[in-house]
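User: Reviewer 2 asked us to show a designed sequence for the structure in our supplementary figure. I'm pasting the structure tokens here. Could you produce the per-position amino acids so we can include them in the response letter?
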């Protein structure tokens, strides 16, 4: 499969999570008009069940209040433990504290209800343009090549048919690199996305990078992850 060609034609998959069915329909209609593939869930718990079935989306739009289960922020905290999924908060909660917390800790954007559907679609496009296209077709199991498969929801890889578990940090690191496959991801960017709320240093990243490479690479074959001296890392496909 030619992944370079595949990424040009795949639709962006957007996950919308809201306990209000009318809101789900409104958002779905607005985004489908923009040629996005939309999947919906009425709670964070159902969203994780959906992700386990179909894989990660390219972006999620998340409500804050979704009683009686996890809140929108709880969903964000949980999913960001193992991936760097871009999130837009769409909620009626407009307190200054919530907006600041959402933008600082969880979301790329924060939109207060009631909202303009056209503006929402424009903001989705802006976030996706800034984050960049995921270089592979996202599915329940993402295929890199004949040797390597990645199951982000289950935090594991399949190497030559053998299942290998990843830590949450290793999974998130692999996600960040694969999202920009073929391009150099700077060390500073990786550090900020892995540990946005705490000081992080290159030595810490090197430890996780070393462990990840030991799990997915074979010394007798070209590496998946290449270190670009003084810049960062590049995930390259082996075809």
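Assistant: Here is a per-position design you can include in the supplement:
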């Amino acid at each position: 499969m030619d992944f370079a060609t595949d990424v040009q034609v795949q639709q962006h998959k957007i996950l919308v999570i809201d306990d209000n069915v009318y809101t789900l329909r409104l958002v779905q209609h607005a985004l489908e008009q923009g040629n996005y593939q939309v999947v919906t869930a009425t709670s964070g718990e159902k969203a994780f069940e959906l992700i386990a079935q179909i894989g990660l989306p390219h972006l999620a739009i998340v409500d804050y209040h979704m009683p009686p289960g996890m809140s929108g922020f709880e969903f964000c905290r949980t999913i960001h433990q193992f991936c760097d999924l871009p999130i837009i908060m769409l909620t009626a909660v407009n307190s200054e504290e919530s907006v600041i917390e959402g933008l600082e800790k969880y979301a790329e954007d924060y939109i207060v209800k009631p909202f303009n559907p056209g503006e929402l679609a424009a903001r989705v496009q802006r976030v996706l343009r800034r984050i960049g296209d995921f270089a592979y077709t996202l599915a329940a199991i993402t295929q890199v090549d004949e040797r390597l498969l990645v199951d982000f929801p289950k935090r594991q890889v399949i190497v030559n048919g053998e299942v290998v578990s990843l830590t949450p940090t290793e999974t998130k690191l692999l996600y960040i690199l694969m999202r920009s496959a073929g391009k150099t991801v700077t060390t500073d960017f990786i550090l900020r996305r892995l540990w946005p709320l705490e000081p992080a240093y290159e030595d810490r990243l090197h430890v996780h990078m070393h462990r990840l490479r030991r799990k997915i690479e074979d010394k007798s074959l070209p590496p998946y992850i290449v270190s670009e001296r003084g810049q960062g890392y590049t995930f390259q496909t082996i075809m």
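For the response letter, you might also mention the following. The chain has nine helices and twelve strands. The domain at 142-235 is CATH 1.10.10.10 (Arc Repressor Mutant, subunit A).
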